[in-house]
Amino acid sequence: MDDCVFCKIIKGDITSTKVYEDDDFLVIKDINPVAPVHDLVIYKEHIRNLNELKADNFKDFSRVFEVITKVAKLENISDGYRVVINNGEDAGQEIHHIHFHIIGGRKLGKIA
Ligand code: 5GP
Ligand code: ZN
């Protein structure tokens, strides 16, 4: 999608710090981290949010926890981290291209 920041990052039109990549997911450092580790697991297909996932997407997402645990190991935060999806406007989703946040590297407070 032309005006989507994450599509531009996937295409390489906007630079990012890559942590991990496979056929379906790109994992990068968040530009505005809220903790020492704050990575974004970005699905390579432009899907707005969970509500738009279709059967083929669900197959791809069956692997997402494998990706997340791999990244946690790479980042040395397997002892504790938070996985967040801000899904839709009311949840504060800013970039309407489905992604997971992986947040860790410090003691985290209670979730809002
Ligand atoms: P959301 O609120 O949509 O769940 O999260 C979007 C995240 O993307 C935010 O944490 C924000 O800091 C991050 N972000 C926005 N623009 C860029 C960018 O150009 N590069 C990177 N690496 N992260 C971005
Ligand atoms: Zn996109």
Task: Summarize the helices and strands and which ones pair or pack.
Layout: H1 5-11, E1 18-21, E2 25-29, E3 37-43, H2 55-61, H3 64-74, E4 81-84, E5 99-104
Antiparallel strand pairs: 1-2, 2-3, 3-5, 4-5
The chain binds guanosine-5'-monophosphate and zinc ion.
Summarize the structure in words.
- This protein has 112 residues and is α+β, with helices and mostly antiparallel strands.
- It has a five-stranded antiparallel beta sheet, covered by helices on one side.
- The chain is 22% helix and 23% strand.
- It has a single domain (5-104), classed as HIT family, subunit A.
- The chain has three helices and five strands.
- The structure holds guanosine-5'-monophosphate and zinc ion.
- Zinc ion (ZN) binds at residues 1, 4, 6-7, 46, 97.
In angstroms, what separates the terminal alpha carbons?
A: 32 Å
The proportion of residues in beta strands is 15-25%
CATH class: Alpha Beta
**Average residue-wise pLDDT:** 97
State the CATH superfamily name: HIT-like
Q: Just name the CATH architecture.
A: 2-Layer Sandwich
Write the element-wise H/E pattern from the N-terminal end onward: HEEEHHEE
Largest sheet: 5 strands, antiparallel
Number of domains: 1
Write down the Rg: 14 Å
Which key phrases capture this entry?
112 residues; alpha+beta; HIT family, subunit A; 5-stranded antiparallel sheet; 23% strand; globular; binds guanosine-5'-monophosphate; binds zinc ion
